[in-house]
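Please check these two lines:
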Amino acid sequence: MLVAAAICPCPPLLVPEVAVGAAGELDGLRAACEEAVGAVLAAGPELLVVVGPGPKGGVWTEGGAGTFRGYGVPVDVRLPSGGVEGPELAPSLTVGAWLLERAATALPTHAVAVPEDAPTARLLGLGEGLAELADRVGLLVLGGGSARRSVKAPGYYDERAEAYDAELAKALGSADLAALEALDPGLAAELMVDGRAPWQVLAGAARGTALTARLSHDEAPYGVGYLVASWG
């Protein structure tokens, strides 16, 4: 059963060595993510599952490793359980592994990458299955809002983006499963929302629970919606 979840974005800039001189600009976001992860661990899960977007689906149950060397920094990470380094983690899961390393947890940890175009029904079913992996399951759910919040955003400006992210913030901050289940894959793709699929996995995992939620961070410093929430 799902007992707690942390919802965090997964930009590589979260890693100070990657952000370099701009690291301070994300201090608030970084702190909010660390607090959300800490809340999941404090709930006493037996198993952690990291869920994030990926170019293709993938499952890591016996360890996994990732690196930020592609950004020019010698930072390597691995999931906190499993004695092996491979296979290589999807980029979003690499950020998740970095967050868990900072939390210094040794809990058994699995990871799942979900394609951004995966159908809703499949994601909800996946979430239900993840919640049944142990009596007490904690999730770290990675993904961001629209990347079209300003003219300097990766996808340029879209007038629909701010209102879309406002609705996301409301849903994530109130554990509104119906709202998350109703997220449209097509619109999410148009607005460059990479969190849609992971959030629908969360909605499936939370079915039948009575979790409460708190939104702790909501900003778009680079024209990308960064939302952090804790469910428990």
Remarks:
- The chain has eight helices and nine strands.
- The CA atoms of residues 51 and 174 lie 20 Å apart.
- The longest strand covers residues 47-54.
- The two ends are 12 Å apart (CA to CA).
